[in-house]
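dumping these here so i dont lose them again. two proteins, back to back, each one seq then structure tokens. dont judge the mess
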Amino acid sequence: MKPYLLFPYKARFVGLALIAAHVPVRAIWEAINPDIDQSHRLPVNPGDSLLFTNSHLFFIASTVLVLSGLFLIAFSKEKVEDEQISKLRLDCLQWAIYLNYFLLTLSVIFTNGINFTDVLRLNLWVPLLFFIIRFRWVIYWLGRPVNQENL
């Protein structure tokens, strides 16, 4: 992955701020709107329109906010962006896609109906989250000092 295709290093902190801002806003929204079925973001009253309601618009804004934050965290440069970090980033992205399609395949086999929409929503988050977790984990292990007693 070419480093010029990545966001600047400070974009990671903007992404963290977006995700951190999402948590209290979401909690306040759920406290103000207890009549919304939180598992599917649909109005409880069957006669209500399902498209572009307040809850639907909030869901769209919330999803875009979190996805933007995760995207900025995942694809921002490191302080030192060298060939090893670039190869590591590509390897972690490959593992994230493998995991995502494995989980998606299992989910398609074992779910149906309204639960399938939850699977598709989860499919938005899993690749970015797994990439970030694996990338940070491998960087953490590469940066640890080697224990001299075990050599």
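---- next one ----
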Amino acid sequence: MDLGLTGKRALVMSSSRGLGLACAQALAAEGAHVLLTGRSEDKLAEAVASINASGPGRADFVVADLTSGDVVDTVLQAAQEFLGGVDILVNNTGGPPPGRMVEADPAVLAAQFDTMVMTVATLTSRVLPAMQEQGWGRVITIGSSGVIQPIPNLGLSNAIRSALVGWSKSLSNDVAADGVTVNMLLPGRIHTERVDELDENASRKSGKSLDDVRVASKATIPAGRYGTVEEFGAVCAFLASRQASYVTGSLIRCDGGAIKSV
């Protein structure tokens, strides 16, 4: 199936590894020109080289730190330089420290909210006008299954990412008639470095072996396994596609059935 992404210009945030990189790779595989961002120049350069060697799309990168006050200006300047504009925006941020909400430091909550919500909202507001003017655009925000079913010991993530749900849905209503779709993509246990870090943290806190933690985690997933980054990236590419033009204001799960609600 041709997803109609050849020549589309995609800005993928926090894409030097994990879910962001998977989305960038999937979009480039469909012919998009992708701009990767992240803090590690070495990882970004390696990822871009791999994408450009694979084709058919191509990739560039800009070093940008989401916690920096000028991150939005930095990535948009690079997007204009390398892409000439943004047709597809994939909002992605790292996750906050694990822990129970009752133990959360309000100062950490405020700082993480600024990075994970305000940066996303500001960046999106800057690229939307051009999407609306051309009558086509895609805004995909990577969230977490915790916005539907709160995840134990991830209190900050559950709270902060939930704010993006109301923002995304409200925004989708405002721009749908302009040909711009706005959706959230919710990963479950996709096997990334972040999931490895969370499993290792759970192992330390519980005193159980890492293997036992993973076996117990997989037992809660109807699919019986962690998802792959390739599976996740494929869903992102579909949401960006021509065929998904009537999918907007949605929370799309990629979780192997782990979320218990209907």
